[in-house]
Amino acid sequence: TQIVRKPHDDGNVADKSTQLATKAVASAQALISCFGSVGCLPQQKVSATAGVPLIGPIAGAAPLRGKAATTTYAVRASASSEVACLLNFASTTGLSNVSVLVQDDGFGKSYAAELDKAAANFPGLKITRSAFNPASPDYQKSMTELAAAQPTVLLLLANSAHSTQFLTTWKSKASPPFVLNLAGQANGQFASGMKGYDGAAAFATVTPSPWETKIDAQREYPRIAKSAGMAPSYLGFESYLNARALIEAVTQTKSPTKTELVRWLDNAPRLDLGGYSVGYGGDKLGSNFTDLALLRSDGTYRH
């Protein structure tokens, strides 16, 4: 069976994502690697109506998981797992005074909701937050509000661009405390923007390190990235794992139609994606794998 990939760019606009997905499911047997909840949630609705599986959404939103997500098959861990990973790090390292920057849109609010749920499991943490409007951000105002709490750790529930600009604003006044970041910030844009940063920054990751060689997937992915002229990255590794999930479903079904793919994914045992496994029986959560990486001052990651 030959898999033909047809990429579409929704520009992170929900209406455009709906239009493109509606066009795609007229002939596609699967959708794969939608990016961000803005695009993934509309695509989920379209895929469910058409009975087409949506595999590997690159987003942690809760509606993309669970029994109600009838034709959605997440590969990465959920936003709740990311937040719990970061709060656990703060708790176990004694960084108990947590200031939280929230991007006041669907992205930031969804993570803030998961923070509210997870906080009950960490009663020793004191959490202060400030929200900013991403359309007209006032980083100075948020910095003043959060710095007043004298935090020992700063949790950023914001995208890479806003996180970089916020930390630049903070650094202009004082040295920021230990910074905790979401998995989406562990990318080249953020790393480049933070070169020379002398503070400590840690990231939740939803894949193993793309630079180690402990499991089959880690050994195969860099070879594929190199052949495509790309440097290994967390996002690239996640896309690779999504592709392996699709390939596994296609090769295991007698006739890889959308109906058969959904049936197989719903009933399959855990999928081994080269040492990284996911499963969809019962809760349909996919994976709960999370880890931590540190950002060095030269803009590279230590995982």
3D architecture notes:
The chain is α/β, with parallel strands linked by helices and 303 residues long. The protein is 40% helix and 15% strand. The chain has ten helices and twelve strands. The chain has helices at 14-24, 37-50, 79-92, 106-119, 139-147, 160-171, 188-193, 216-227, 234-252, 258-267; strands at residues 31-32, 54-55, 72-73, 97-103, 126-132, 153-157, 178-181, 201-205, 271-272, 277-278, 291-295, 301-302. A seven-stranded mixed β-sheet has the order 5-4-6-7-8-11-12, sandwiched between helices. The protein has a three-stranded parallel β-sheet with strand order 1-2-3. Strand 9 (271-272) and strand 10 (277-278) form a beta hairpin. Helix 1 packs parallel to helix 2 (37-50). The mean pLDDT is 93.
The H-and-E topology, N to C, reads as: HEHEEHEHEHEHEHEHHHEEEE
In the sheet with the most strands, the strands line up as: 5-4-6-7-8-11-12
> How many H/I helices?
10
How much is the average pLDDT?
93
Please tell me what the overall shape is.
globular
Number of strands: 12
| Percent range of helical residues | 25-40%
How far from one another are the termini? 37 Å
Q: Which oligomeric form is depicted?
A: single chain
Q: Pairing-aware structural class of the strands and helices? A: alpha/beta
The main sheet comes to:
7 strands, mixed
Strand fraction equals 5-15%
**Rg over alpha carbons:** 20 Å
Low-confidence stretches: none
